[in-house]
Design brief:
The chain is of the alpha/beta class. It has helices at 12-22, 28-46, 84-93, 140-151, 166-175, 203-208; strands spanning 6-8, 52-58, 63-69, 74-80, 98-99, 101-106, 113-119, 128-132, 135-136, 157-164, 180-186, 189-190, 196-197. Helix content is 32%, strand content 31%. The strands form three sheets. Strands 1, 4, 5, 6, 7, 8, 9, 10 and 11 form a nine-stranded mixed β-sheet that branches. A two-stranded antiparallel sheet has the order 2-3. Strands 12-13 form a two-stranded antiparallel ribbon. The longest helix has 19 residues, at 28-46.
Length: 211
């Protein structure tokens, strides 16, 4: 359906946890915890290409040259506000990652996203960047966030989402063909209001209990 830049998690734990999240009766507490857990599982896959080196250690049995991360610097950048729910899961897998934040609002007339807040590590251009947001719907906000990272010199950018619509994936693949997309599931479509179907509702409201 999509090319090799789109990575859909084919894992029973992810499918099971997403089912619980989709249920409208799932509590805010459980929903929030599941966002973090799935974020951790997707990060596991998204970091598969991190480079390794070796270092000498001694096991209880003998000395050895053991694999260790080669010091590649990572930054996680949540799209406010719903993206905040994924940060903890990413950091549990990559504790040394720096955290930036990007906030956007949508123009009511043009529907175009505009950046209103962007605070990033000073060395962001030298880091592998993971932009995180629970939902990839139209793709407008994610594309704008990627634009902002590229304007700041970022070269290696990945987009990590829980649920994606085909429309959003096509948007990112068209506007940013160099960016890999990692998602827990690809749903059917967007409805007339721009919500993913079947989706899981407004992720921000369900994470923070503001619905």
């Amino acid at each position: 359906m999509f090319d090799e830049k789109v990575h859909v998690m084919d894992h029973p734990l992810v499918a099971h946890k997403l089912t619980i999240m989709r249920d409208k009766n799932t509590s805010v507490k459980d929903f929030r915890e599941l966002v973090s857990e799935i974020g951790m599982l997707i990060t596991y896959e998204a970091t598969r290409d991190l480079p390794l080196t070796t270092k000498p250690i001694e096991t209880p049995i003998c000395p050895m040259e053991a694999p260790t991360l080669a010091g590649k610097k990572v930054a996680v950048v949540p799209i406010l506000r719903a993206g905040l729910g994924l940060v903890d899961g990413v950091l549990r897998m990559v504790p040394s990652a720096r955290v930036g934040h990007i906030g956007m609002y949508r123009d009511e007339k043009t529907l175009e996203p505009h950046v209103y807040f962007c605070k990033l590590p000073k060395d962001i251009a030298s880091r592998d960047v993971m932009i995180v947001d629970p939902m990839l719907a139209t793709g407008g906000s994610a594309a704008a966030a990627i634009d902002e990272m590229k304007r700041r010199g970022c070269k290696n950018i990945k987009l990590v989402v829980l649920v994606a619509a085909p429309e959003g994936i096509r948007c990112i693949r068209t506007q940013h063909p160099d960016v890999d997309i990692y998602c827990g599931a690809v749903d059917e479509r967007l409805n007339d209001n721009g919500y993913i179907v079947p989706g899981l509702g407004d992720a921000g409201d369900r994470i923070f209990g503001t619905k």
